[in-house]
# Entry
Amino acid sequence: MEIRHLKYFVSVYQTLHFSRAAEKLGISQPTLSQQIRILEDEIGSRLFDRVGKKIYPTQAGELLYQTSSRIFNELSGFESKLKKLQGSSEGTLRLGFSCNELITRVLIQYNHLHPGIVIQANIKSTKETIEDIEENKKEIGVVRSSYHLPDLTSIPLYTEHFSLIATKDILKDLQKKKVLSICDLVKLPLALYPSNFLVREMINDEAEKQGFTIDPKFEFSTMNSLIKFAESGVAATILPEPFVREINSDCVTCLPFATEELSQLVQIVYLKGRQLSKAAELFVDLLKEQYREKAESEMVFNH
# Structure
């Protein structure tokens, strides 16, 4: 059963006149009569009784009209929702990310720009975020990873550097250094992310290259906990520089690591071959714009 046949039928039902219905539809009367007969043959029942020059809908015709009305109402609602979705006023952004300190402000701006879009965002480790994308639980992700991801499309945002955060008492033997090495961590009490986080994996790998093992005294999955322990003077922690710049605390000192030792690529990822939804496209465009401006401002600052 084709939609056009239903449109022909509805027009005849509403006018109860084949010639007027044909004129309204812009087709000839014989063509319309033939299309109605095809529809009747398809459903196996007459739709109109012809009495003299008048026609009347049969019970099957009444039932088909009720059904057709619901179908066309649903289609009209679908078209309206589709236009809103394509125009970005509605939809859902399904986002996973492992860079909380980077994404929150962008999400707030995104919500201001597109208040009709529902945001479903989860903070997880990079590995968990990638798994969610591969299992279609999330459409896109923003992750820290320098690894090749063969099943994903990757859009690099920038390279992230890391610093050691601690009180002056803990860093007293390192204060004169302008740039740190992983080997400087050997005697320090540390609070780090758990081993399933790629940031921690990067730190462990670099330590192994230099011939020792990282054994933190504390492990936390949230950045706020790491900062609190650093501020308390209990342990030192390692954080990405974009967040380090925003720590407004006089009780901690920040010392950068050598770029060749600790750095990671922050990138947008999604499944290869996937056509992104309008909601996701808008978020990707906003992220790229934000970090292009960020990179340009840092170049000006560094000059």
